[in-house]
What does this fold into?
Amino acid sequence: MRLVLIAALTLLTQALFALVANAASEIPSTIEVNVFTDLTEVNLTRVEYDSLGGRGREYYVFEGRVWLRWETDYPQAEYNFAKRLRQLTRMNPAVSPTRRRLTDDDLGDFPLIFMSDVGYANFSTEEEDALRAYLENGGFLWVDDFWGDAEWASLERFMRGVLPGNRWREISIDHPIFHTVFEMEEMPQIPAESFAGWGGTSEPPGAHKYPAGSLAHASMRGYFDDDGRLMVIGTHNTDVADGWERESYGSWYFERFSTKSYRLGVNVYTYVLTH
It folds into this structure.
């Protein structure tokens, strides 16, 4: 895993302001942030997993196609995020995102793996063991887009098998992960674009596993190893990847949500690849 060097904060801040001001799916060619050579290659890697429960649980129909839970926002979120990483940092993401099962032999080749929409996920003992080995060898897992109490409980059950005896901790806004590149004042709540126009930033309970409980506040929760290294984060009650995937679905969504999603994404990837 090679460490990356990040462009100067001044350039990055100017770039973000340009993103907000233009509020478009394509950054004008006059905004040239990434002027460095010999960029470090990064693979954006999505975890493929099994889910249970039939329609509406293990899979759903949206925009004229069937989506398995693991592929929520995939691959357009990764394509868009790769473009922004390339513009805002010295990382050089692969042209096409990668997808892997937790039991794949080459999982350790990827320093950060990304998992989405895990409320109905069903993991085997072999997958738990494989993820434990990956994390203990220095890997990092980011879990996104799961809402409410029942969906968090699903992830927590899985993590008890992966890291027995290890409890999650709330990651407060003063943690370096929120300040590595962009200064963030809060954990952003990003609703799916289809819910964003309803007012507010939370998603409706009926869209998530019962009992949903509280969906009002977004948080980042983490699992740490015995030396204090952050190994796993869960961005709960928020859909960061939809902010990437849907950046071109109107300037209002881009300005209000996508810019926050990109700030957090750049911070997380930078933190992981430099720690």
About this structure: The CA atoms of residues 170 and 221 lie 4 Å apart. Residues 251-273 form the longest helix (23 residues).
